Structures
1.
Amino acid sequence: MTEAPPEWHISEWLNTDQPLTLASLRGRVVVVCAFQMLCPGCVETALPQMREAHELFHSHGVEVIGLHSVFEHHEAMTPVSLRAFLHEYRIRFPVGVDLPGGGKDPMPRTMRDYAMQGTPTLLFYRRNGDLATQHFGHLPDMTFGAQIMALLAEVEGPDGR
């Protein structure tokens, strides 16, 4: 039996009426992108890819989620700035604001729990909530789509795994 992945630590949710958790998304394939709005790789490649995945796969049982994980330039990347950014870039999928680390720790809590190396980081979860893959950096579109399709094609066993 595999260990359950850590739950996300979110201070605020945007583009959704209710908080999202791994447990509440059980039964759906989940793709999360940890990003920063001042990260060039996130803005140029990761977020457009996530936006397209949301448009293509949401009706097929895939939940696309952004995780705004700020580990630098904290003063510039506030929730107010993030709201304007999401509107400007037409990002309509749910985005959680990763809870800042405690004290002088600049690393957000979810980012630390998953030992992320930076942004963008992609997390792919199976329908049962298990973490299937974690990837730092950009994935080519074909690889990204193939990962989602492979998770959609998985059949759960009698034990839910």
2.
Amino acid sequence: MSAKGKVHRNERIKISSIIPISDVNGPGSHYTIWVQGCSLNCSGCFNPQTHNRDSGQERKISELFQEIYRLWLENEIVGVTFTGGEPLQQLGQISSLSEQIKAQTNLGIIILTGYNPQELQQLPNIQSIIKNVDLIIAGRFVEEKKIQMGLKGSSNKKYLFTSDFYNSIDLLNIPPIEVIYNSLGEVIVSGIEPDPALDAINSEFSPK
């Protein structure tokens, strides 16, 4: 491993959940991490369970990288998406993991953040993120401007392309929602505002 890709063995990140292979959180299959913790409190946010910094679980960044690396070797994923929660409120950890991904793989990296472009420029060490990701989708979720398209929850959000890995046409072809049945028999629904779909599934299979 090159020095550029090194991550401290015990460095940890607080996460809410992970979908290892998701087809609705990027163009193609993406390893998707919902980080835990967000203080922005956007009205109508459809991931409120990710806000409390004291909830969720800690994971070693080195272990997450090994999972991502294995799926990349097996050609199961083409990218990694960080969402939440607010990924950039754990900027150092996201930077470390992104740096290692870029040093060891050819995966694309997307970050969904509630910070707008002007706020991003004020974040300490933001350049450590920008140099290792390919797309930042920036801006608060605004319920009155909800569009549910191209990884945007609302129309005010901005695409900040930092490489040519992704383009706006690719983003428009992302399915809006997916339903996954995992090995434990759990039903996982992901996408923009997935709760109505999950409610419909629960209603369909609940005892009559």
3.
Amino acid sequence: MKKVLLITDVDFWEKCSGHRIRISALIEYLANNVDLTVVKAGPAPQNIETLLKASINAEFFILEKVKFLNSNGYGRRLKAFLKDKKFDTIIIEYIHCSYFLNFLTDEAQVILDAHDIISDRTDEFKKYNRTGVAVDAYYEMSRGVEFDIFNIYDNVMLLCQPDYEKISAIINDKALLCPHPEITHKYQVRKEVKNISYMASSYLPNIDAIVFFLEKCWPILSAKYDVRLKIYGSICDKINLLLPENVILGGFVADQNAIYEDADIIINPVRFGAGLKIKNIEALAHGLPLVTTVHGARGMEAGKGDAFLIADDAEGFVQAISSLIENVNLRIKLSENAHLFIKDNFSAEKCFAPLLKVINIGDQESL
């Protein structure tokens, strides 16, 4: 069995945002298919390795549990950890952690899990005059610098088809399409719509999305229908608007299944950003009627109109949501198609097969 090291600075066990959920899913998949070791930069809870190992068949190591270190500090800790250890493959999460490359001495193949194309995200932020802002998980990068770093790696993982096609044209056969997987959950579609839900982190495009919806769409919908808008996640701390009674801030809920079970319609009016929208994949896996934007559907284009609905302005969102509220058969159809769409396109085996093939390529060549 191949020995794989995954390096990250993300507290993936806190499944409160898309990128954490994605990394957690990757770790769980690898743990079932390779001999996996996960190194987290830190800081982290003192007993986190024991807790993780109790449920995941992998080794876990935190470079520094108490305080933050600079890149050299983390790099030296990693180099010490790697002494007398040998791995076949090393996966680095996110391009900003590429400084770890300076501290690798093994001849293992090295793979970048890029998630998004950062230079594309930078361009998207510029369209909405959001450059230079100090927000969580946001940094800017030029296309030239980013692609130069991509070329250092043996392979680069991308989450959605448009990103994969773009990078494949730049780095030839190095790109791997590895979306986020989900398993389907079956809930009964209720005859009457009571709850429209939105779940998101405090990431700036998410804030922009819900403010747009509250200002441009919700006054029309709430005047026409007896429904509630429920908002969940850390985004609730960033909403500074005066909210009407039928808008509920639910905050962070540990059991996401409970959120989906309570929801009748899911919205994601995201207008800019990058990559695959994991909250959309989750909604479809739970069989919820979803209304999102063209941008929100990146990497999910094959499901447009059949598995979910698309709207790109206030009028479109109001019309799409109205059609769902008034037509239970449409919601049932979308729910059934959503499950089929996830099973066909976003199973763990399909999403991570390209990665596992690259990891095992040495075994295949020796046959």
4.
Amino acid sequence: MSEPLKGILAMIAASMVWGLSPLYYKLLAEVPPLEVLSHRTLWSFVIFSLVLLAQRRLKTFFEMLADWRSLMIVGVAGLMISINWFVFILSIQIGHTVDASLGYYVFPLVAVALGYLVLGEKLDRIQRLSVVIAFAAVVVLTVGLGAAPWISLILSMSFGLYGLIKKSLTAGPVVSVTGEVFILLPLALIWLWGVNSAGWTGFVGREGGFFGADVRLSGLLVFSGFLTATPLILFSYATKRLRLSTVGLIQYVNPTLQFLVATLVFQEFFSFWHGITFAMIWVALALYTFAGWRQEKSARKAAMRASVVSTTVI
């Protein structure tokens, strides 16, 4: 099996795990979302630590934590990803998986906009048009429903800022995510102590403390660590073997599966305005993908011409 094919299979597997994860978190609907998030943080740290130990990369992890600049960046990234995880879990529990899928559809365009506004990255006309269409789609949904799609906006913005922040890190994805959950771990442990020993209820006002009291839920909470770690490791494996345009294209499997789960399995509310918004977002993503493919094709041609010129000169 060729390396690119291995990368494609790994990317498809990662996107399928992410896309079908609402089915898993729906099984934890009776557990308050902060408790689920805390267990996800705890068991993710255990899994990632074991992976780094097996790879003999713990030294790299501790070197990253010893650098104050890297520590600050990892801390802010951890805050962004924890917000993203919490809102995603909450959206499934309250029946807004459709909005979550919309957020992950919008995310690539948010990332493009942040790159343009913050990093000064250049956009061609088609890419600018795709961002404008995405913005218009959000406006249409806001006007149609009479309220902003806050879940979609928070998910796309938090994940976009997460990616932007991590651009300044030299550490690999597994090392940096281990750092993120390590920094969040004390908060997770404090919350788990509170719900199990002090009766804390959190935002939703429901009693927690399910771990150890229910075998099925305890197992599901522990497995959330594997559900977090596995797709990220597969994603890291895929990005080393595929072009970014290929990775980006396959990654749309994630929100597509979330959308199908929300509408076909959960049978969530899907209005006329949702239909218009999703159609606009899909058009924007098609334009964005085409622009990225065209840029990559031009870059390959330029590289080939440069190679021919250098060979001729030699």
